[in-house]
Design goal:
Layout: H1 7-54, E1 62-64, E2 67-70, H2 77-85, E3 92-97, E4 101-109, E5 115-123, H3 131-169, H4 178-227, H5 235-261, E6 269-272, H6 273-285, E7 291-295, E8 301-304, H7 306-323, E9 324-332, E10 336-343, H8 354-366, E11 369-375, E12 378-384
Parallel strand pairs: 7-9
Antiparallel strand pairs: 1-2, 2-5, 3-4, 4-5, 6-8, 9-10, 10-12, 11-12
Helix pairs in contact: 1-3, 3-4, 4-5, 5-7, 6-7, 7-8
Length: about 375
């Protein structure tokens, strides 16, 4: 998950990194230009001193305050070592950087046809570093940069607050930024669509409730009237019993479907699963499904709706009869439920049928997690509380 940050911090990091990169490039370029200009200036003064020496206005050898004009044999030791270390061509300037400073040397031909050297030496003390100046300038530039970032962040935050206020009050205020206007419009459209969908769901739930309950009520009344008739043939009693059982099952399923269409967590209450599972095992044993129930001795308490839980168990049993073979093994604990049986040879279960979808919807209503897997010839359905 990405770490949240304010707009001001976001701008400060991005613009600050760009500013540091700019300062570094600017410093390198400025130093390069400075040294290039320094070299050109020094070379100009070297040639100027050479002209003075050749014109006879200076007594050679000349040595004063970092300047030397004369022959090689009379040159100070430090200068001579630098000259002897590298061959210098006539009428060319050479730069030697030493620990004590920078040395510029111009080699020319003297009046007596002997090599004449013009040396300008700049000690470290005479050549102050430019870094303090660059640091001071960069620090001075931070003040207006920080002010600009603060103003931009404050303005964007204000516009964002206006958008949130517009959404909360359901009145879109014009924003200076087109992106914020677009966001507010899209958000309001999504809100309207969500509210419209909720209204449609309520209407559908009310319609579904009416359309399902009306025929069920008629069936119930007809069954009551039939039971009041005295001269019913004995052969019809079994049929009436079957109809009555089917009517009760249909009523329970219809009630569960209606609850699924409008789930409400406030209707969930704590119930013990032990007795519900045992009754479910007994009921489906009559339908030919053998359920091997392994349950803990203590009561397993969960917040649920008994009608929906019974609907889920009914779908599990139906899937076991339709797509499986053999006994259905059920393991119940405080952590969840586990249903396991062998996959039928003619009806392999994929776990994506209507029954599986109803099971998932019921688990979603209870806040449970459900997953189905196939291990070889065994189908496993796990419900995790």
């Amino acid at each position: 998950m990405n770490k949240k940050q304010s707009i001001t911090a976001y701008l400060a990091k991005r613009i600050g990194a760009l500013f540091i990169l700019f300062v570094l490039v600017w410093t390198l370029v400025a130093k390069w230009v400075y040294h290039y200009a320094w070299d050109d200036t020094t070379e100009f003064y070297l040639h100027q001193d050479l002209e003075l020496a050749l014109s006879g206005q200076l007594a050679l050898p000349y040595h004063f305050e970092g300047k030397y004009i004369g022959a090689l044999d009379q040159m100070p030791t430090e200068y001579r070592l630098a000259v002897e270390s590298t061959e210098i061509m006539f009428a060319h300037t050479a730069l030697f950087a030493t620990q004590s400073g920078d040395m510029y040397i111009l080699k020319a031909q003297g009046v007596d046809e002997e090599p004449l050297y013009v040396v300008h030496f700049f000690s470290v003390q005479d050549s102050p570093s430019l870094m303090p100046i660059f640091i001071i300038l960069a620090g001075a530039m931070l003040l207006p940069l920080g002010f600009v970032i603060w103003r931009i962040g404050a303005h964007v935050s204000k516009e964002a607050d206006n958008v949130l206020e517009s959404v909360a009050n359901q009145v879109i205020k014009p924003s200076q930024f087109s992106e914020f206007d677009q966001f507010a419009t899209v958000y309001k459209t999504a809100q309207f669509a969500q509210q419209h969908a909720l209204d449609q769901e309520r209407l559908f739930a009310a319609f579904l409730s009416h359309e399902i309950r009306t025929p069920l009520t008629k069936i119930s009344h007809c069954m009551s009237r039939i039971q009041q008739i005295d001269d019913i043939p004995l052969e019809a009693l079994d049929v009436l019993d079957t109809l009555e059982v089917s009517q009760r099952e249909l009523s329970q399923i219809a009630q569960g479907i209606l609850l699924l269409s409008r789930p409400n967590s406030s209707q969930l209450q704590n119930h013990a699963l032990n007795n519900v599972l045992k009754r479910w095992r007994t009921k489906w044993h009559e339908h030919g499904l053998i359920i091997e129930l392994q349950i803990e001795e203590h009561q397993i308490i969960q917040a649920l709706h008994t009608v929906l839980f019974s609907l889920m168990l009914t779908q599990v049993a139906k899937n076991a009869l339709q797509h499986g073979q053999g006994a259905l093994d059920v393991y119940a604990s405080d952590q969840g439920l586990r249903f396991e049986n062998s996959v039928g040879g003619n009806h392999p279960s994929s776990g994506f049928g209507l029954g599986s979808k109803i099971i998932k919807q019921v688990c979603d209503c209870f806040g449970w997690y459900v997953k189905s897997t196939v291990h070889g010839e065994r189908y496993v359905l796990e419900v995790i509380f």
